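[audit] Reproducing an earlier prediction to check determinism. Same input, same settings, fresh worker. If the tokens differ from the archived copy the diff job will pick it up downstream; this log only records the rerun itself.
[audit] input (264 residues):
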Amino acid sequence: MNRAFILLFAAAFTAQAEWTMLKNCKLVENQSNDGDSFVVQCSTPYRGEIQNRFRLYFVDTAETDANSDFKRDRLKEQAAYWGGDNPDFALQIGLRAEQSVKKWLRGGFTVYTQGEYAPSMGAPRYYAMVRVNDRWLDEMLVEEGLARIYGDDTELPEGVSADSHLRRLYELERAARTAGLNGWRYAGKPEPSASPPPENFVRHDAVLVRDAWIYSTKDGTKVMALLKGTPVSVLAPNGDSRFRIRFERNGKVYEGLCEKGNLE
């Protein structure tokens, strides 16, 4: 991919945060492709056919190889989301997600992007929503038990709020978990999925008012400590005394549970 064009593409989008619709898109074979990130060729009004790498909002599919310590750690984390500790199982689900996306996108699709840069260890990529056969691709992945609800989110192109879309994803996840589909087979007997945020809850940013323990979203055990002043995003209540939060540490994004009294 031409580096000069990539820079022009990014500049064109960063000038405004509005959605740009790219029609008649085709999936491009690339070794970096997986279930939530892939190279796409699209038609544009002024530049004709272009290629760019996009990363889905709202979801994360498992890695499709275990060729580094970073990816092996990610596979363990992804397996834990589905209730297990076997990274090889998560790898299988990642490969299945990649093949499913390839099949679903075969007939063409539409990409919506705001030009928001998505962190990457490889070629530059941009966050996007993908529409195929009148469905959002992130919904299709969650519905099949092939992705976890995780990562950056956004208001949808048609104006649906991020919170409303997340509630929809949680509903689809509960159904997939009850049916034991794909990743949820690992958990054996399905357990109730995490409850979506209440209708009247508004996600917001906050900071820790004291050093605090962060607890696992899976089993509630202590997983790490964060220092006073750490900024976090408060995603949803978790019981009466804790919030589910998202935060960054050492360049990685995590989700965990925090006592409500530790946040301001």
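[audit] rerun output stored. Observation attached for the diff report: Helices lie at 3-14, 69-81, 87-104, 137-143, 162-179.
[audit] end
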